[in-house]
Amino acid sequence: MKFGVVVFPGSNCDEDMVYVLRDIMKQETVKLWHKNTDLEGCDFIVLPGGFSYGDYLRSGAIARFSPIMESVIAHANKGGYVFGVCNGFQILAEAGLVPGALLHNTERKFICKNVYIKSQNTDTLLTHAIPKDKALKIPIAHGEGNYFADAKTLKQLNENGQVLFRYCDEQGNTTPEANPNGAIENIAGVCNAGKNVFGMMPHPERASDKELFNEDGKFLFESIVSRILQH
Amino acid sequence: MKYIAEIDVMPLKALLDPQGKAVTGSMKNLGLPEIENVRIGKHISLEVEAATKEAASAKVDDACKKLLCNQIMEFYEFKLVEVK
């Protein structure tokens, strides 16, 4: 299994993502430049956080038309794995690879802090190794993370188990107070209907190294790696 | 022929516009409480080359749908003026 982390102009979490995948998870990992179209044989594509193209127009709107995205979309449509974190999630939403959109935080502030999220579906590649009912402490860092989907889409997401994470308190209760950005139904992450494309606002790669005294994010990477190794 | 498109992209009416809400609040502070429901979007102008106004309109519509507007959260409208 080979991982590819796409680098857009303005990506700033690419190095952290590569560090976690390569140095902590011991996986073959390469960076993929946005101007190329070759995925270099990667099986798992990661769109990292950052401010691709300065968030011009809308977050992720310009990056979505980068040359490499044609290949990423084709990879996803064939069932290949794609994981977007923060700006990566915004790019996936703009590309229509996951449903919904990311609006400005309701408080209109950039929020950078630890929050708690709880896995909603323990049967996906990204979440199966997360202990059930555990509230994971994972940092967020975004100005546009307010997840929105219309009522019909929301119903489909809930019925198909496509909601991956909801913001919760430390005890795991999904409350309005635990919602940092106004996201509808406290949604912090979703996947597509095929459950091969995953997007989330919180940054698991910033909570996966014991040197940082928080390894809650590592459950996600362990989920990915352990299931892939079974195949 | 060349046309100029003047495009407005606005947040959907059903969605909270936090920027507009904050500006509405400051209208009261500056002594204009009669002003309410401020909503803030984007104005985009662009030039487009096309044989007819209809063709120009179709191209601008395409640009709005594919890139300039995310219809999950915004709507758009535009006017076209021929450049003489």
Descriptive tags:
heterodimer; A: 231 residues; alpha/beta; Rossmann fold; 9-stranded mixed β-sheet; 11 strands; globular; B: 84 residues; alpha+beta; 3 strands; 32% strand
Number of strands of chain B: 3
Tell me the strand order in the biggest sheet of chain A: 2-1-3-4-11-10-9-6-7
Beta-strand portion of chain B reads 25-35%
Biggest interface, chains and residue tallies: A-B, 18 and 10 residues
Radius of gyration of chain A: 16 Å
CATH homologous superfamily descriptor of chain A: Class I glutamine amidotransferase (GATase) domain
Describe the protein's architecture and organization:
The complex is a heterodimer of chains A (231) and B (84). Chain A has 5 helices and 11 strands, in the order E-H-E-E-H-E-H-E-E-E-E-H-E-E-E-H. Chain A has helices spanning 14-24, 67-77, 87-94, 151-159, 218-230; strands at 2-7, 28-33, 44-47, 81-85, 101-103, 111-119, 135-142, 146-148, 163-168, 187-191, 197-200. In chain A, helix 2 links the parallel strand 3 (44-47) and strand 4. Chain A is globular and about 45 Å long. Chain A starts with a strand and ends with a helix. Chain B contains 2 helices and 3 strands. The longest helix of chain B is centred in the last third of the chain and has 16 residues, at 53-68. Chain B is elongated. Classes of the chains: A alpha/beta (231), B alpha+beta (84). The A-B interface holds A 57-58, 61, 65, 93-94, 100-101, 103-108, 148-150, 182 and B 15-16, 18-19, 22, 67-68, 70, 72-73.
Question: What is the fold's blueprint, element by element?
Answer:
The complex is a heterodimer of chains A (231) and B (84).
Chain A: E1 2-7, H1 14-24, E2 28-33, E3 44-47, H2 67-77, E4 81-85, H3 87-94, E5 101-103, E6 111-119, E7 135-142, E8 146-148, H4 151-159, E9 163-168, E10 187-191, E11 197-200, H5 218-230
Parallel strand pairs in A: 1-2, 1-3, 3-4, 4-11
Antiparallel strand pairs in A: 5-8, 6-7, 6-9, 9-10, 10-11
Chain B: E1 2-11, H1 18-29, E2 42-49, H2 53-68, E3 74-82
Antiparallel strand pairs in B: 1-2, 1-3
